Amino acid sequence: MGDDIHDFFDDDLDSWPEAGDGGGLTPPTPPRSRKEMRLKRKRRKQHRLIKVVVAVVAILLVIGGGIAAVQAVKGWRHAGTADQSIVDDYPGPGSGSVSFTIQQGEGALQIAQHLLDEDVIKSTEAFTSVVSANDMTLYPGTYQLRHQMKASSVAAILSDQGNAKGFLEVRQGERLSTVLENAAQATDQSVSVFTDATKDQKVIDAILPTEANGSFEGWLQPGVYDVAQDKDPQHLLKQMVDARIAQLDELGVPQGEERERILIIASIVEAEVNQDEYYGKVSRVIYNRLDQDMSLGMDSTVAYGFDTTGTQLTNDQLNDESNPYNTRVHKGLPPTPISNPGDEAIEAALHPTDGNWLYFVTTNLETGETKFTDDYDTFEQYVQEYKANDGAN
């Protein structure tokens, strides 16, 4: 009976109350019979077996669930990748032809939606992600695309400004001849159509103010112009001249002959130096020379008269008196502006920097460094410095 008693006390030991729990130290009530003890021992073994089985099952569930979860994630990621390549983007190269226009000021998402509407791309996400990942700039203009193209191919075309049609950009400091060439290219017309318009007296009288003296040079406002819908040369010239007049009014440039004078000075300022930090000083040199009845001696004006650049001038050209734009031999300002100056150069012509300079030399063409002086000997030193730098470069 010793084993039975031992089993009894082992089985019910945990049911004894702890000291201090209010239950005292009374042992459990003994079983009524040996049979009852055997049944209780059997139930205890079954209970332990159940606990072991439950624990094992729980562990297996945790392990199995983790594996299933990993497999599910992998499957989801794979499905997502497949979905992106199959559902969201076309494989390309596409078919047919689509004339697609980006308007000035449109963003990547807006452009993507228009591409989706034209069935050029399959999703806006595929297109915008390529543009964002590659930090692309999308240029205004009209492009020739296809239906159902790969998004990356579309982005590559729209980010190449050379592919853009239908928009004309007039840059500050550009000559009239360059603007007309670009306008012809943007509108798929002959450049003669535009040059003829600038020489047509009816067009001149209808568009230019009297102080322009019949020349469009200097009177075209830098900016971007939409030529996709209206390619008429007269209409385009009017847009640019009207924009110039409005901007001159905004800047407070006096009207009449003084307005043309300011444009001439500003065009020389912009042509002589390539950094706006020097604009005010160059403007002052021009005014000082005019005040002292000196010739301006500007190579930029001579070059304009020969339709070339300052670095390509020959000695014969520099001394050619037949060139009305040769300010080396002719005193005063040239007959017209020599380019279409930007706002900074116009501001410099209106408000030249205070100083007594009479000479300036860009001593380093790579950096644009320009030096100013009122002393001729110092000027000659600057010329030698320029020659030394030019030879070294």
Automatic annotation (TrEMBL):
GO terms for molecular function: lytic endotransglycosylase activity. The record marks E272 as: Important for catalytic activity. Its EC number is 4.2.2.29. Residues 9-42 are annotated as: Disordered. It is found in: Cell membrane. GO terms for biological process: cell wall organization; peptidoglycan biosynthetic process. It is a single-pass membrane protein. Pfam families: YceG. One of its GO terms (cellular component) is plasma membrane. Its main location: membrane. InterPro entries: MLTG-like. Keywords: Cell membrane, Cell wall biogenesis/degradation, Lyase, Membrane, Transmembrane, Transmembrane helix. The chain crosses the membrane at residues 49-70. It is an enzyme of class 4 (lyase). It catalyses: a peptidoglycan chain = a peptidoglycan chain with N-acetyl-1,6-anhydromuramyl-[peptide] at the reducing end + a peptidoglycan chain with N-acetylglucosamine at the non-reducing end. Functions as a peptidoglycan terminase that cleaves nascent peptidoglycan strands endolytically to terminate their elongation. Belongs to the transglycosylase MltG family. This is Endolytic murein transglycosylase. It comes from Bifidobacterium cuniculi. The lineage of its organism: Bacteria, Bacillati, Actinomycetota, Actinomycetes, Bifidobacteriales. The gene is mltG.
